[in-house]
Design brief:
heterodimer; A: mainly alpha; Four Helix Bundle (Hemerythrin (Met), subunit A); 78% helix; B: mainly alpha; 3 helices
Chain lengths: 218, 100
């Protein structure tokens, strides 16, 4: 009898309209991939803006990207790849029923994500202090190009939207920690960890392209 | 059970170390002079390899159902279509530079 009740307990997460846990898991993951497709095309619009304007003003991009510090861009790339690793480790912990490891890995990921945002904050505030702001309020004289504000508007839109995704990711990780502490996850059910991981890796992939395109032009 | 591939900790660390190395490489190639447009090509090529590694081994597409891979590939295809069709306009305008 006790065997049966423990099996039932482990199927708490299973919705009645799914045949079994695996089908539910695959359906959730498929849904997340459809969402990621929309995310790729969402950011894709900004990448197209970047490409169009770089084709129009190639010399502007060379000049203006010198205002961005490639060192901090590289540090942030390392931070995000590190956080992708810890998310992958968190999923592995969940798959192996190691809930403590899951929580620790999620906390490290949150820490790295906050590190990323703190570095981004210092980068932004250094530029704001110089008058490098998006749009028509741009007042920096240091870039010898009449369209300098266009590069920085693209920069702020792309990194800003990316930063927003990082902040949402931090929120999702905190939600996962709370659920993990309530012992919701086990090797038979860790779908939210898996699909948040997919989201987080996509945020990492987008930064992998933003870093060379914005910081490393020369 | 395609969705439940469990990677070993060693494997995940290996993937991350390769990604760290490629990040360093992205920066290192800017120290040597590569005549443009090839510097952009090299930067995008390395970034693409990194993105493929992340999607295959961190996002588990390598072990995943073919349908999820199809979705990912189609999103890239439509993204390239968006770039291509837009450039067909913007690259061939008589008065190419707009006022903004």
């Amino acid at each position: 009898m006790s065997q049966t009740s423990s099996t039932e307990e482990k199927l708490d997460h299973l919705k009645h309209y799914f045949v079994d846990s695996d089908q539910q898991f695959e359906a959730s993951k498929l849904g997340m991939w459809v969402f990621l497709v929309t995310e790729i095309l969402f950011f894709g619009g900004l990448f197209v803006a970047y490409i169009v304007y770089r084709a129009w003003y190639p010399e502007l991009f060379l000049l203006a990207s010198e205002e961005l510090d490639a060192f901090w861009g590289m540090v942030n790339t390392f931070v995000l790849i590190g956080s992708s690793l810890t998310v992958a480790m968190a999923i592995r912990s969940a798959q192996l029923n190691q809930i403590r490891g899951l929580i620790i890995n999620l906390w490290i990921t949150i820490g790295l994500a906050i590190t990323f945002m703190v570095i981004k904050y210092f980068e932004y505030s250094e530029k704001f202090a110089k008058g490098i702001v998006p749009g028509s309020a741009y007042s920096y004289e240091g870039v010898a190009h009449e369209k300098a504000n266009i590069f920085f508007s693209i920069y702020y839109m792309m990194t800003g939207l990316h930063g927003l995704h990082v902040i949402i990711g931090i929120g999702l990780m905190i939600w996962l920690v709370i659920k993990a502490k309530k012992k919701v996850f086990h090797s038979g059910y860790y779908t939210p960890v898996e699909i948040t991981g997919l989201y987080w890796h996509l945020v990492d992939v987008i930064w992998i392209f933003l870093f060379p395109l914005l910081y490393l032009i020369d | 059970m395609s969705g439940h591939h469990i990677s070993s900790a060693r494997f995940l660390w290996g993937v991350a170390i390769v990604l760290f190395f490629l990040t360093f490489l992205t920066v290192a190639v800017t120290w040597i002079y590569i005549p443009g447009p090839w510097n952009v090509v090299v930067a995008i090529a390395i970034a693409t390899v990194k993105a493929l590694i992340v999607s295959a081994f961190f996002m588990n597409l390598y072990w995943d159902s073919k349908f999820n891979i199809l979705l990912f590939v189609m999103s890239i295809a439509f993204f390239l279509l968006m770039i291509g069709i837009t450039l067909l306009d913007t690259l061939f305008r008589v008065d190419p530079i707009p006022s903004f």
